[in-house]
Structures are given as structure tokens and as C-alpha cells.
User: Which sequence fits this backbone?
């Protein structure tokens, strides 16, 4: 309950006059509030456009967004907070702050994010909010912009990701098996058995193999059974990317045939997976002056 203390000359007067004053007295604070609010509001630049796409070869989310043109025109120093969420996991998997100074060219802003699990495995969503450097107030968050994973596709059978077959020794890899539409995955396992983290909802299963090593076998096999006990499998090769050849040496005896030798580092890849080396030929002509 708000108390109104009326000055003596008004308090004594007739009812009509007093009501009028009370309304004014109530409106004034509201008006002040509104003015303060709209001054702060004009310092807030919510995201006006947000587009998220994916580059599956690089397993990268590409984010493009913009704010109003007036912010560009004012060459505003502005911070953005960007969040990435995986649908199914309620938690935000990545938060990043980005400080930029907008320029008059008015081009949209760009940011990219490399995913540690194949983007096919589940849907990813991104949202952004902003704060002018001169202000303390964050804008509202944009809506989440979602890039669907293949768990939302119409496919009937399970699929295993990543499709990449060569994995670098020492790295960590997360694999997933996605069931067909409305289908439950019964089991998803790795052979040889290694330490793994598992994530499960009924349609998507994830396995993380840490610190891949060729000693545990240069082939990793994964097996995925759907609810009808049908088996899907994939094999991965663990190795080292080929080094620059060492002790490279070429010689010729007759100036027609050149014999080159080099030593190559161990890659732990064999047979048809052996690295291929290409010899590139450059001719030198000696000019005599
Ligand atoms: C979003 O970005 C992608 C990749 O740059 C582009 O192909 C697509 O047309 C964009 N979508 C919209 C609605 O602008
Ligand atoms: C970005 O700006 C904020 C203040 O708006 C500051 O606290 C933060 O340290 C800055 N971050 C970077 C990476 O410069
Ligand atoms: C999925 O299937 C339904 C009906 O079978 C079809 O209407 C819809 O367009 C399909 N969606 C996609 C993404 O293929
Ligand atoms: C990864 O495995 C190699 C050999 O298998 C071991 O030498 C190394 O310490 C391991 N690294 C980590 C971080 O566990």
C-alpha cells in the first residue's frame, strides 16, 4: 500500500481536486520509470537474424547473425554470448564470449564451432545475446536455432557415425549409432573392448573411446543391434598420419633414370591402407650466359 502525503492546501480542499492530484501523483512515477526503461532499451541490440548451418566434412557448425543497422552505423563495440546446446542433453555444451567492434560495412557476423561428436548423431542448437560495451544490460536471447541431426530423419535402419574410417592415434573419438525412425538401439559396443563413456537415449547411443592406440589393435570394430536384433557394424583404422619422408635422396647414373630413396615413419596402417607417396618432378635447366 502506497502512502500519499498531500500538502496542506490540497488536503483541505474538496474531493474532486484531491482525486485529480492523486491520479497525477500516481502517473508521475510511472512516467519516470518508463523513460528510464526506454533509455536503457535503446542501448540494447538483440540479434535480428541468426542462421546456423553445418559443414559435415569438417564437423563444424557455421553461425551467421546480425544486429540492427544502426548499431553498425554507430561502429558500436559490442559483446556477444553464444551458446551451443545438444538436444537431448539439457545442458549447454559450449558458451563463448566474443567482443567485436561493428563497422559501417554492415556485414553479418560469423563464428564457427568444431563439434567433438559427429553432428549427425543429434540435433544441435545455437542462441546468441548481446551487450553494448557501454551498457550493463544484456539483450534478450535469440530463439534457439536448430540444426537437426539424423536422429530426426526418416531412415528405416540404423547408421553408425563418423563415416571417416581413419582415426589418429592418441586422439579421442566419439561414435554413435542412430536407430531408424522410432527405433530403439538395444546394444552398441566396441571390440577390442576399451574404456568408453556411454550415452544412451533409446534411439541414439554414443560411445567415446579415449586416447586411441594402435596397440589395442589397429582395427576398431563397433557393433550396433537394433530392437529386432539386426546387426550393423563398422570398422575404423587407428594409425599415425604419415610424416614427411626422411633421408630423401635421389641419384642418377645415366642422366635418364633417377632412383630415389627415403625412409618413412611408422603409420601402423597396412595393406590397402598404406600411405601413398607421390614424387613430384621439377626440371632445372641451367642457362649459360
Ligand atoms: C544459412 O546459411 C547457409 C550457409 O551459408 C546458406 O546456404 C543458407 O541459404 C542460409 N539460410 C538463410 C535462411 O539465409
Ligand atoms: C569482452 O568484454 C567483456 C566486457 O564487456 C570483458 O569482461 C571480457 O574480458 C572481454 N573478453 C575478451 C576475450 O576480451
Ligand atoms: C518423412 O516421411 C513422411 C511420410 O512418410 C513424409 O511426409 C516426410 O516428408 C518425410 N520427411 C523427410 C524429411 O523426408
Ligand atoms: C595414451 O596412450 C599412450 C600409449 O598407449 C600412453 O603412453 C599415454 O600416456 C596415454 N595418454 C593419456 C593422456 O592417457
Assistant:
Amino acid at each position: 500500500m502506497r502512502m500519499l502525503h498531500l500538502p496542506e492546501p490540497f488536503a483541505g480542499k474538496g474531493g474532486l481536486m484531491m482525486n485529480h492530484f492523486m491520479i497525477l501523483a500516481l502517473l508521475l512515477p510511472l512516467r519516470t520509470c518508463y523513460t528510464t526503461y526506454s533509455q536503457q532499451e535503446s542501448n540494447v541490440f538483440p540479434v535480428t537474424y541468426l542462421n546456423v548451418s553445418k559443414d559435415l566434412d569438417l564437423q563444424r557448425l557455421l553461425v551467421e547473425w546480425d544486429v540492427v543497422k544502426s548499431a553498425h552505423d554507430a561502429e558500436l563495440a559490442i559483446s556477444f554470448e553464444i551458446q551451443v546446446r545438444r538436444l537431448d542433453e539439457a545442458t549447454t555444451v559450449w558458451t563463448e564470449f566474443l567482443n567485436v567492434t561493428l563497422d559501417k560495412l554492415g556485414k553479418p557476423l560469423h563464428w564457427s564451432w568444431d563439434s567433438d561428436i559427429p553432428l549427425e548423431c543429434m540435433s544441435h542448437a545455437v542462441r546468441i545475446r548481446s551487450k553494448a560495451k557501454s551498457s550493463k544490460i544484456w539483450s534478450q536471447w535469440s530463439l534457439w536455432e536448430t540444426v537437426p541431426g539424423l536422429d530426426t530423419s526418416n531412415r528405416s535402419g540404423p547408421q553408425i557415425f563418423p563415416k571417416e574410417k581413419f582415426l589418429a592415434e592418441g586422439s579421442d573419438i566419439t561414435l554413435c549409432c542412430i536407430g531408424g525412425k522410432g527405433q530403439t538401439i538395444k546394444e552398441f559396443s566396441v571390440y577390442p573392448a576399451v574404456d568408453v563413456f556411454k550415452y544412451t537415449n533409446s534411439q541414439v547411443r554414443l560411445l567415446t573411446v579415449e586416447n586411441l592406440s594402435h596397440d589395442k589393435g589397429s582395427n576398431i570394430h563397433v557393433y550396433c543391434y537394433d530392437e529386432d536384433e539386426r546387426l550393423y557394424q563398422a570398422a575404423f583404422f587407428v594409425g599415425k598420419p604419415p610424416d614427411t619422408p626422411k633421408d630423401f635422396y635421389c641419384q642418377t647414373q645415366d642422366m635418364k633414370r633417377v632412383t630415389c630413396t627415403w625412409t618413412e615413419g611408422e603409420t601402423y596402417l597396412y595393406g590397402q591402407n598404406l600411405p601413398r607417396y607421390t614424387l613430384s618432378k621439377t626440371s632445372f635447366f641451367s642457362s649459360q650466359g
